[in-house]
Amino acid sequence: MSKVMLITGASRGIGAATARLAAAQGYALCLNYRERREAAEALLRQLEASGTEAIAVAADVADEEQVMRLFERLDQAFGRLDVLVNNAGLLEPQARLEQMDAARLQRVFGANVIGSFLCAREAVKRMSTRHGGQGGAIVNLSSMAARLGAPNEYIDYAAAKGAIDSLTIGLAKEVAAEGIRVNGVRPGLIHTDIHASGGEPGRIERLKSSVPLGRGGDPEEVARAILWLAGDEASYTTGTLLDVSGGR
Ligand code: NAP
């Protein structure tokens, strides 16, 4: 039977690129998304047409009940889980700290941090040999913002990704002896719609001169790092944060 990968936030961007590459490598897929049903279903049809077994499930990962339902759907469809890619994440419009209210902070930490914790928890319950599982791999999407801080843009998002780095380091140690590897990927400036969501579609153009490789990255270049960490080729790698940032 194919290995099963759950990718949160798979309707577009890095999540969708990861789904395409994972399908090409033979994984069966659970594609989670929050609201872009049409995009997720179009991707699902495309993958199914090329022979991949897949489902698409709407769930806001910041909401515990919705996460529980997402994993119930996964259990019903596949009865196993080999890889979780904690990719769902969001940005709010660029702002300084003085303009950040609690509602914004709850949205940013909810989707990026609480969502990753809840999905990791449900994955560990299914993968850990302590709970009768067969082991597995978790890949968390952090960001170079965790190191750079994103001043005047979104230090809330940067801090949330800092929490993802700590989750990766701590959980990797917690479950290492139970057959689960946990790693993180820290993308730099990647060509997706997330920058428009932050209010500046041309952000990469403005900042690309600060990238030693001189350009933004493509979602596929991040997907390849995710797939490597997810697979057996990375069998001795856990608790690692892999920067995919053109040297920035
Ligand atoms: P994107 O194009 O904005 O896509 C984000 C995806 O996450 C969408 O599929 C979205 O679903 C989903 N999502 C957002 N909030 C969600 C929630 N609460 N529950 C479930 N799904 C949710 O972003 P991206 O650029 O591909 O980024 C993917 C990951 O990489 C994120 O964690 C991001 O922080 C990280 N990252 C990106 C960059 C970059 O330059 N692009 C750099 C560093 C890190 P809907 O479309 O259905 O809402």
TrEMBL record:
GO terms for molecular function: oxidoreductase activity. The keyword Lipid metabolism does not apply. SUPFAM superfamilies: NAD(P)-binding Rossmann-fold domains. Residues 3-183 form the Ketoreductase domain. It comes from the Bacteria. Keywords: Oxidoreductase. Belongs to the short-chain dehydrogenases/reductases (SDR) family. NCBIfam families: PRK06123.1. This is NAD(P)-dependent dehydrogenase, short-chain alcohol dehydrogenase family.
